[in-house]
Write a structure and sequence with these properties.
There is one protein chain. This protein is mainly β. About 10% of the residues lie in helices and about 45% in strands. It has a 6-stranded antiparallel beta barrel. The model has no long low-confidence stretch (mean pLDDT about 90).
Amino acid sequence: MSLLNCNMVSCVFMLPTKTPDGSGGFVTTWAEGEPLAAAIIRDTSTEARIAEAAGTVSVYTITVPRAVHLPFHSVIKRVSDGKTFRITSDNTEKKTPACTALDMAQSTAEEWRLTT
């Protein structure tokens, strides 16, 4: 087992469903979807800490196996604590080549609250 695999935790994709609210708007409900394993690491760079101090959300790097696609603006939930993350980059743009034994793709994400 690799160090990367040791850092993987159980997560699930969160799927939105919009229904009319009767007043011309919509109500969004969220349901758990497919499970996945991901390593979720908070960005503690100087730039990220300055941005957080200015009131922006916490920034994370999400690492998954190459076969897992994390589309832009998809939402995942960490099972252990229920914290949700919205993907802010497409992980097809940052993955290891198929010829290497290191099987990973990375996305950036922000801590995000599910709204209804």
